[in-house]
Structure formats: structure tokens, C-alpha cells
Amino acid sequence: MNLKLLFISTFLGVFCYSNAQKEGNECINANAKYCGECIQAGAKCGWCKDPNFLKQGETVSTRCDELQSLIKRGCAEAEIENPHGTHKIIKDKPVTNRSKGAEKLKPEDITQIQPQKLSLTLRSGEPQSFNLKFKRAEDYPIDLYYLMDLSYSMKDDLENVKNLGTSLRVEMSKITSDFRIGFGSFVEKTVMPYISTTPAKLLNPCTGDQNCTSPFSYKNVLKLTEDGKKFNTLVGQQHISGNLDSPEGGFDAIMQVAVCGEQIGWRNVTRLLVFSTDAGFHFAGDGKLGGIVLPNDGKCHLENNVYTMSHYYDYPSIAHLVQKLSDNNIQTIFAVTEEFQPVYQELKNLIPKSAVGTLSANSSNVINLIIDAYNSLSSEVILENSKLPEGVTIAYTSHCKNGVVSEGENGRKCSNISIGDEVMFSISVTSKGCPKQGKPETIKIKPLGFTEEVEITLNFICECECHKEGVKNSPKCHFGNGTYECGACKCNEGRVGRKCECSSNDVATEDMDRTCRKDNGTDICSNNGDCVCGTCECKKRDNPEERYSGPYCECDNFNCDRSGNKLCGGHGRCECRVCICDPMWTGSACDCSLDNSTCMATNKQICNGRGTCECGICKCTNPKFQGPTCETCPTCPGVCVEHKECVQCRAFGTGEKKDTCEQDCSYFHLIKVKDRDKLPQPNDASYPLMHCKERDTNDCWFYYTYAVNNNTEKEVHVVETQDCPAGPDIIPIVAGVVAGIVLIGLALLLIWKLLMIIHDRREFAKFEKEKMNAKWDTGENPIYKSAVTTVVNPKYEGK
């Protein structure tokens, strides 16, 4: 039964570990046949080039493993191929520090991004990181191209734009001393149904007596110039045109402005395109209405500053525009009326480094709109990279103002950047595997809307250093049937075997299989390997620590006895299913220690002189004594007093040790029971225990048992409630005192009342007696005068 349980637990442990390792060990899963293939499997993989490293039955691919595993298996560090990537900065010009009004610099002499060029050598799975600094330069040159819708609805807007050149130059001079402005206009494709193609309408598309110019798709009116007055003059000569439908052909114009850099006059500075309209836009696919099916080619088609292929190519798509605007570092400002704000807000979300401003009905606020949009765009830096080679990934971490750190997509950008502010980006480049050609690749990273960029050359580590020392057609590879490199044979096509000794057509013959059966049995390579060229090549396990070996793959290093769920008790190694124990250990599972130091008691005696030391564990001969060195006596006198304070603080949080309980009293396992009957009894336990009854400072008794169980753990069972003497019943006492006071008061009142009655009666009797004895004179009082006075009126006649 025990053996069965041991087998099940061993199997489950191995199964769980194998599944955990299956995904994790990329080196084993790679099944690499040569060193270059191994190091491409992952950054943790190494290749042992020691010619004598492989044991009998092991395949060439077992040379590829994690570094610690190779060292543990006996490969010296000097024999392990484990190349590492590097990075080297080639051009590191510092960012420009200058203030407005200082010596004027050419645009190419101003640096806002550092470094400018570097080289990375990439090992598969190993990231290479570097820091990129961006500083928004003071007084940086600006090119602004104003692209205006000249359909009839923009008539009043044209009047306000005619003085834009000088006015805008004055405002922009507060930002930069190097400012250029240009102007272009657009209407619509010159085919039905976008415009009327009748001869009269081609000359004047407007109705009534309105004088309008002929319709056109896009016209570059003024190349970028520093002359604001020239801008005013040429714009003043422009006339309104007209078309039939509401959406305009602005996308055709934007595409030409983006790709016709020479005709527009763009410099390698901040490039702003102001797109002014009061209508929506046509995009890719709309050209089919006019019979135009060819997709926009994204090339410049300006002849005499007029777009000549509007009737031939369809409108560009939004994605096409995004690509061209980004490639040419153009930041777009959509100045549109309030009616079309929602449409252009959605478009802004698709075009990086773009802004939307609300244009008044007659464009009177266009200057403030441009200034606000420029400040918004220039205060944010967003990094983008060119297309990455296959298998290469890049990660960004931004370190912005006020200590704000972001990762992921937000790691590409920083906001609220003022002139002169520095921000830092940490960039990590990782390659998985090696490109097919293995040649160096170049990628570029740049801030959107800026012409400056970082050029990165990517070199890939596709082979080991020892590959250079390989010997083609080496005699070590069976008469020259392979290249001997990095300690192993790399067989020529059609050859197999550890030393390329067999043809791939002969590897499965009956004669060869016979030599792979042990004792003429039926199992080829003990069912643990494959017979290749008459030699067993053992299967690999998912767990890199586990291996089959032997001439017939009959041995393994994972089916030995276990102790404590560890192979060979963790004190030996498993060879061919037998534990080879480390020094001072013995037993089938290497779980028996020959070291007596663990049995040494404090009195320097083995097991305190009361037991024997077996496999590093004391077997106490006197049953009264327990513990790892037979020094614990749970039933000896004084045990209860010794542990009283700790039991009190652990169980009830009181006592002298309540403040140091966690430090001083964690040496035993505490178990609480409800009452004394639940405490373990001596007859119930297979080890001695002591019953204790102790009293605390409040005269409360508490009961517990102390024992050392069979696992040498100290165990305390304690009754969770204390037995305290009953205190006086306060309520009856208080009630009695109150009642007594009341009764005494009533008695005193009665006595006083009684005395008063007796006194009153005595006084009355005395009064009556004196009354009877008195002799009163009943005559008139001589001094008595009547209170009545009678007066007679002398004139009264009695009438």
C-alpha cells in the first residue's frame, strides 16, 4: 500500500513538473541540431561544444539547454557558447541649446533629438535598450502652407484671407524668426458629375451675374516664401469657382501638397498644412461616379503649378494620406466651420499630429486658430518607427515632465512640452529568431511632424563564434560526410547519425534495429528512444533535468527512490535508477544522515545520554524524554510554570509577556478547546503530556496541557475561557442601599409628625385650662368710641 502511494505521488509530482516545464524550456523544445539553431531558440539557451559532453544514447540536440542545466550536467563554462548582443552609438550630437535672437542657425544645424545614429547587435530573445532624448528647440523654423477651398460658398472667406500673409507673419514672429508661408487652392475634379461640363459652365460655373473662374482640382498659387506682401498680392488676385456636389476634392490637393516638396518649397523644418473649408470631402472610391477607377498613385503631378491628373486618378484613401503626411513630416490643421466639426474630428483621430479648429463663417478668426493649433501640436511629441523586420519588436517607455512615466502605446508620447523642455524615451528592441537572409537591417525612429530621425542598424547573431572554426567534410564526421563545428557533426544532406555515419535511406533496416534491442528483447531502445544507424538515440523529456541514457536507453535519472518528495532526498544524484548519495548520507533514497551533529544536546552528549542517533535523528530510550535531542520532558515538574506566561499571552493576550509574545512565545503550536473535558487525556495520546492549572493576576484560573508530539512539535491545548471567581452582584446591593435610605427617611418623618401632634395637643390643653380660669368684666369699655358719626344738615326741612 505504501509503495503504491509513493508511486502515485511520485508520478503526479513528475507529471506536474513536466507540464510546468513544457512551455518554459524553449531550449529543449527547439530540438536544435547545431549551435546557431540553439542560440536562436532563446536568450537563456547555450550550446556545449565539449566533444566529450554527450553520454551514450543522448542526441546532439541535448547539447542545447539552459546555462545552469549545462553546468550541472558537467559542461565547463568555458565550453558553453552563449553570445550576447551589444549596442553602439555612432552619432551622438548634443541637442541644441540656444535662445531666440541668438545667432541664426541653418535648419540642418539645429538638433532636437539625440542620439542620431546607432548600431544594435541582437541575440534572439535578448532585448537591447538605449535612451533617446528630445528637446524642443527655441526659435525653430516653420513652413506654413495655406490650402483653401475656393468653391462659391467660401466667397466671403477669401476676402479675409487676402491680408493673412502679413498679419500671420507678425503673430508667428513671436514664436520664430524664420517663418515662410505659401498658398494653394482647390475645388473639385473637372469631370461630371462633380462639375458641369457644358462650355458655358466651364468658363463660369456660377449662376446669375456672379463672375467666377473656371473650375480646377488643385492649384499651387504661391510657393513657400518669406515675403508676406507677395502672399497678400497673389491671394488678392484669386477668384471664387464652383462645383455641383457638396463634398470637395480636398484630398487630391492634400496629396499633391505632401508629395510635391520641390514645387511647394518645403524645407527640413516644422511643416504645417492649414486646410480651410466649409464642406466635407471625397475619398477613395468616390471617383467611380466620374468613371475614374485607377487608385491614386501618391506621386506628384503638377504642371505649371496645376494638378493635371485629377481626371485620371481616384481620390486618395485616408490611410494613403496618413502615410504620405507622415513620410513628409507634415502636421495638418483642419480649419473648418462648426457644421463639419464632427466629421473632421473623426478624421483627426485617424491622422497623427493633426488638429481641428472651428472656423468662423467668414474666416475672420483664422490667425488665432492657426496659433492655437500650432501650440497644441508642438507641445506633444509622438515617436513612430519605420517598418520592422520580421521577428523584431520594439517597446517604448516615456519619461515625461513632472516624473510621469508611461509604457505601451502611451510610452511613445509626451504632452505639455514647452520650448526648452527635455524628455527622455527608453527604447528596447528585441529579435525573435534570425531573418532569413541574416543580413543587417536598418530601421528609423522619429518624432511625428519633425524631420529629424534616429537611424538604427540591426545586426543579428545567427551563428556561434565556434561556427567560424568549423571544418567542412571533416574526417571526424565519418569520412567527411559532414562539417565538424562546435564539438558536433553537422551532417551533409542525406546523411544522419551522431557522426553522419548512415545514409537517410538506410536508417530503418531490420539488421540495424536488432542491435538496438537489449538481450534480444522485443523493445527497441527500451521504448525510450529511436534506433538510428544501429545506435539508440534516447528520447528527450519535457523536463530538462530528466534524461534517458545507456546503450539501450534503459537508464534514466528520475526513477530513483524519493524522500520528502525529493529525488534521492535531495542529497544525491540518480544514475540508472539508483541513488548515488553525497558524502555523509546513505540509504536507498539518501535520506539517512551520517552526521551526528544534529543529535548533539546542549550538554555535548549524543541525544542527552538518553537515546541513540539514527540517520541524524535521536531515538529516545526513556519515554519520558522527547525532542530532537531527548532534552524535553513534558511531564517533569516545573513544566507548567515554565510555559505559563507564554500560554497566557498567546491564548488570552494578557500577562507579563503580552508585549513580546510574538518574539518569545512562538515555539509551540496552540490549540484552543471549549471546556476542560475537551483537553487531551494521557490515555488518549501516544506521547506523554502534562495537565496544568495556573492562576493569573486577576485570580482567574486557566487550564492547559503541554506535550511534545511524535513529530517533535511542541503542542499546547488550552481551554479558551478562564475560570474567574464570581464578583458581587451590584444591582441588589444598590437597590438595598436605596431602599434602606428611603425607609429610614420615612421613619424619621413619622417620628417627627408624632412629636408635633403630641406637642400641639399639650398646648391646646393648656389653653383650654387657662380659658376656664379667666374672670372677664362684661361692662362697656370706657375708652370705647363708636366708629359711626352722625351729622345733621341744618337746612334739611324734613321733605
Task: Give a brief rundown of this model.
The protein is of the alpha+beta class and 799 residues long. The protein is built from 17 helices and 42 strands. 23% of the residues lie in helices and 25% in strands.
Task: Describe the 3D structure.
The chain is built from 17 helices and 42 strands. By secondary structure, the protein is of the alpha+beta class. The protein has 7 domains: 61 residues, ligand-binding face of the semaphorins, domain 2 (2-Layer Sandwich); 126 residues, Immunoglobulin-like (Sandwich), CATH 2.60.40; 238 residues, 3-Layer(aba) Sandwich (Rossmann fold), CATH 3.40.50; 28 residues, no CATH class; 51 residues, Laminin (Ribbon), CATH 2.10.25; 32 residues, Laminin (Ribbon); 81 residues, Hormone receptor fold, CATH 4.10.1240.30. Strands 4-6-22-21-16-19 form a 6-stranded mixed sheet, with no helix packed on it. The chain has a 6-stranded mixed sheet with strand order 10-9-8-11-14-15, sandwiched between helices. Strands 5-7-20-17-18 form a 5-stranded antiparallel sheet, with no helix packed on it. Strand 27 and strand 28 form a beta hairpin. The longest helix has 44 residues. The N terminus is likely disordered.
Keywords:
7 domains; ligand-binding face of the semaphorins, domain 2; disordered N terminus; 6-stranded mixed sheet; 799 residues; transmembrane; C-X3-C chemokine binding; integrin; Rossmann fold; 42 strands; alpha+beta; Integrin_bsu_VWA; integrin binding
